[in-house]
Amino acid sequence: MVIACASGKGGTGKTLLAVSLALACSASEQIVFVDADVEAPNAHIFLKPDIEEERVVEAFSPQIDEGKCDGCGECADFCYFSALTLVKGKVLFFPELCHSCGGCELVCPRGAIKEGAVEKGRTRKGVAREGIVFWEGRLKVGEPRAPAVITELKKAVKKEFPDTLTIVDCPPGASCALVEAVRDADFCILVTEPTPFGLSDLKAAFQAIQELGIPCGVVINKAGIGGGGILGFCEEKGIPILGEIPYRRSIAEKYARGLTLVDGEDNLKREVLAIYQALRRVTLKGAGS
Amino acid sequence: MKQVVVLSGKGGTGKTSLTASLAYLAGDEAVVVDADVDAPNLELLAERKPLFEEPLFWGRSAVIDYERCVHCLLCVSYCRFSALHVKEGLPKVDPIGCEGCGVCQRVCNFSAIEMREKLTGRFFISKTRWNNFLFHARLAPSGENSGKLVTYLRRKAEEKARAEKKYLLIDGSPGIGCPVISSLVGVDLAILVTEPTLSDQHDLERIVALARHFGVPHFVVVNKADLSLKNRNRIREFCSLQGIELMAEIPFDQQVLDALMVGIPVIEYDPQSPFSQGARAIWQKAQDFLKAQERS
Ligand code: SF4
Ligand code: SF4
Ligand code: SF4
Ligand code: SF4
């Protein structure tokens, strides 16, 4: 089973819940943890993996053979993203606009474009605390396109661990990167906080998840600071509430030190496990109906 | 006209609370942009009056005509974005994954694929309670092109600001990907908000690298500075090593959350709270920096 952990925006405690869930479940099951927040991968801070393997994620980049090119401009006409332009009979390439679709190579009648590769980022694999299998993706700094790295990351994980309980820490937001990360998940946990910001972000994330047709449930972090309309929204949409993490300064302090919910004095392992059990109940019910 | 962006490697650091407070302080001298198009929250604190709204259709997506399709599945093998799947022998487009590149249309020998435009999001101009114009947008659910949307927002806001205002204030989007780059490039000052946690420190380093990469002057603000003194000291050390000015250290302030619950910026809720004092100091320093820059 693949469980994705998402939230409309960052800072809602999504990573904290994801790593805590992985640690809480690791006593009874083999866990694969995937940090798909490739713009700002942080789970390693809590899970402390020993990285054993690193792979470069590459994508198509056109290599133009000026000797063969006759400046017909077909490639520039085709490129929907304007990464190729014809200037005075010469083709100019703007790598930051290229989506690596490979179309230019396809359309060039002279065979003047060859497949080259650019680095988009890296995926890294290792073993973390409690024997958790750890994967993460890292976007290259200055590289604008996160989904490419996420796709590779997920492919690698799926190939090696098709049936292991997998927890995916998703990127924040509700756009392309999130969609790429949650796609093919069996269940999505939406972490939110009971504030007007939290509600607004939850709505956006829920809409995206719903479009993908992935069942989901909500975990309320910083519970107790107010209502924020979360309960009403969940009831209206029929989203199950899986559990809560209380609002305490001590949790924020623990987080700051790189500790999870299941570490240290006020250990919330039971609460985290209860969230997992609620999730199992919901998915079993969903499968039966 | 000078452009200031407030950024943080990650959401939840108080970036929007700070931008709202700065927008309040700048009043009608500023045009404000909410570049966090993924999670546009500034409007929730600004109590806006809508002036203008426009739907944006930028993307396109492949649509298959099954009357013509002969199920050769050539298109599926050429799509580099895994946006074409085979379902019961038929090619199926996943409109969310489709980048609109048009490769499938090109390779189909039976003209069975058409490219159709799709909704990217909505663009708004509003007037806030503090008399500034707010340029904001909402990405369509699971929409793409957030970087382009940010660029569009900025361009529209710049036109307005250049003509009649002193400042363009941008609430940046979190992360370091395309929308962030779009909100950072070409600004006069970036205020980087961080928290003294191990993970935020990591984000800060990445965002500093990004600001440097694009040659944007930047200052750091530590919010909730007393959450971990050890980490705060590390940020101090990092900043001094890198020669970055620490603009302010703001202690953990319950009022920020209380103000958020009522839906107004902290500076209006309690002008004397630690966060409000921090915001005022930050705005003063930002103005001083921009003035000095102008002179030199
Ligand atoms: S690979 Fe696609 S996006 Fe890149 S230059 Fe070629 S046609 Fe344009
Ligand atoms: S399509 Fe080929 S030959 Fe024509 S301009 Fe492009 S690279 Fe040159
Ligand atoms: S290439 Fe054209 S004909 Fe072949 S499966 Fe795709 S849409 Fe159908
Ligand atoms: S337009 Fe490009 S991304 Fe979309 S389905 Fe066709 S080949 Fe794939």
Automatic annotation (TrEMBL), chain A:
Pfam families linked: CbiA, Fer4
Coiled coil (residue ranges): none
Gene Ontology MF terms in the entry: ATP binding
Name of the protein described by the UniProt record: ATP-binding protein
PANTHER family, sorted: 4FE-4S CLUSTER CONTAINING PARA FAMILY ATPASE PROTEIN
Keyword Thylakoid: no
Keywords: ATP-binding, Iron, Iron-sulfur, Metal-binding, Nucleotide-binding
Domain 4Fe-4S ferredoxin-type: 60-89, 90-118
Automatic annotation (TrEMBL), chain B:
Domain 4Fe-4S ferredoxin-type: residue ranges: 60-88, 89-118
Gene Ontology molecular function: any one: ATP binding
Superkingdom assignment: Bacteria
Alphabetical keyword list: ATP-binding, Nucleotide-binding
Signal peptide (UniProt feature, chain positions): none
Listed name of the protein: ATP-binding protein
Native source organism of the sequence: Thermatribacter velox
